[in-house]
Records
---
Amino acid sequence: MEELKNILARHGFSFKKKFGQNFLTDTNLLSAIVHDAGVDETVTVLEIGAGAGALTRELSRAAKKVVAYEIDASLRPVLAETLSGCENTEVVFGDILRADLPALETELGRYRVVANLPYYVTTPVVMRFLEETHGCDGLTVMVQEEVANRFCAQPGTAEYGAVTAAIALKGAARVTRKVPRAMFTPRPNVDSAVVRIDFEPGRIPVGSEEAYRAVVRCAFASRRKTLENNLMSAFRLPRERAKAALERAGIPDMARGETLSPQMLARLADVLQEEGVIQ
């Protein structure tokens, strides 16, 4: 195929900073990302951020079906050209954060998400699929390297936070490859990494996912405070009741949220729900 930069120029496309547009063109790398995502002829893919269609085309070659969302409608003529002949691929011009996800999932059935996400939208997109999906089997996302480290962090590290704990409830996250900034057009200021998250229902037993999310928000509301103090602030508990809840969950009263494993956060969520603190 003609070089992507020539196709973009011919259609008068200009990169838009507000969309965080950085395109990949290396065919070997794109093929490797498709492999990382576990995409084969049995898999339906929801791609977020089709861009100029380079990754979309590689996904189309491997997948059963591809539905690709792209927020920038000015890429319509570019994608019409780069995805010519990709009969199993549909492009939807719209914002995935505003999409009717239940209706989309009815159309897709079981599917996997693959995305090259700009920084500004990474967490909202990942959290939407963690919290709202019923048909997604997992996500493979390209993100800034520091964000990838946060997704896969261990308790007690500086990178471990609320998004780490949210991901851990649903599945195992791992970095599959690092992608240097020189691989993108235009070249960003940071390196990236590909993270694969495989959803595993019931991975961490918890009575209520809503209660777990409430505890995670509480635990990381103020990293400098002890969990006991965060419990008092978040749920308006007297100190003795906060201490008692932590003791029931097997957590030291001076512990801080970032030191607790997702399993410990789940135990605390169950205790607080049993005691009626969280409905």
Note: Strands lie at 23-24, 44-48, 65-70, 89-93, 111-116, 136-144, 171-179, 184-185, 192-199.
---
Amino acid sequence: MSFQPGILEIKLPEWMDEFLLGRAACITEIRDRMLFVIEAARLNVAQGTGGPFAAAVFESESGKPVSLGVNLVVSGGLSMLHAEMLAIALAQKKVGSYDLGRRGFPALELVTSSEPCAMCFGAIPWSGVRKIITGARDADARRIGFDEGPKMKKWKSELGKRGIATLCDVERETAARVLLDYARQGGKIYNSRES
């Protein structure tokens, strides 16, 4: 018997296959990419499979979806299972490289239903995506009780220094509504220490 588990397995919600079926076509408009992600966040809550967050990696030019991640922290029992982390990891597995900005790859972007927390922000420069598009603001997630961590105030300019463009507040009200609905329905607000 090993000192630690020999395999780390992440099980994606069963509803995701059906959700993605018929949506594999290119989504050319940025607003529509965000609505796709927000709908995944809403379904994650409605299906009881996780928190009110979702993210996807798209080819920037064509709008072809590469991966979709939803928040599975509680259902998966791992604090790292944020939507952005899953979307990035699934995209890397799909393309066969840890570097999504690798030469010869189309430019990829991360579309996320909420601004990244401190952990997800840290993963973005290492991922290779060239753009991040966000819906709800950090303040919207904090408002319902999520601890987004000690993220720097000038996070957008820090990404810009690394050649990563940002576009924020795309469908912000729609994305923030998913957060509020989750809290009103008694969704678990999980942070690093449970009461």
Note: The beta strands are 54-59, 65-70, 108-114, 131-136, 165-167.
